[in-house]
Design goal:
The protein is of the alpha+beta class. It has two domains: 1-31; 33-152, Alpha-D-Glucose-1,6-Bisphosphate, Chain A, domain 4 (2-Layer Sandwich), CATH 3.30.530. The protein contains three helices and six strands. Strands 1, 2, 3, 4, 5 and 6 form a six-stranded antiparallel β-sheet that branches. The longest helix has 29 residues, at 2-30. The protein is extended and about 70 Å long.
């Protein structure tokens, strides 16, 4: 009887131990997307130009925005050769915000999102967008900004 009680207690403890991670995964999935930020020691116009240079080097196409708005919206290339069958396409979208930083300089915030449209021949416009939380794209973008700022300000 003691063995059955012990086994039941251990089973319940293990079952409830996993609930916290499941709860965190669900909470993270539905949480608002988090922009990655970097503060640079230049004004917003120079930060904007550095961000435009970085997106060109990453082969993104500028869609809209400007230095006065402090916004850049850009798209990566369409990848139609992904797994998922014919008619499936993926594309990465970049959303950049540039503002004056409290500590001086400019704050550059970026969010990358993946757009996936499965079988767009049958259901055009029925794609999904999901933010990329842990992606190397953030580091690549910020390293291109650093390089652009070094070349413009030796």
């Amino acid at each position: 009887m003691k063995n059955i009680s012990l086994i039941l207690l251990v089973t319940l403890a293990l079952g409830f131990a996993g609930c916290e991670t499941v709860r965190n995964d669900v909470r993270e999935r539905f949480a608002a997307p988090q922009y990655q930020a970097k503060v640079v020691s230049v004004d917003t116009h120079k930060a904007y130009e550095a961000a435009r240079t970085a997106l060109k080097q990453m082969n993104y196409t500028f869609e809209r925005g400007g230095p006065a708005q402090g916004l850049i919206h850009a798209y990566g290339t369409v990848d139609a050769s992904v797994a998922g069958g014919p008619g499936t396409a993926r594309q990465v979208y970049m959303d950049v915000k540039i503002s004056v930083a409290i500590e001086g300089g400019s704050k550059i915030e970026v969010l990358f999102s993946r757009m996936v449209e499965d079988d767009f021949n049958k259901r055009p416009g029925q794609g999904t967008v999901s933010p990329l939380r842990d992606s190397p794209l953030y580091e690549v973008f910020f390293s291109h900004i650093d390089a652009a700022l070094k070349t413009k300000n030796p």
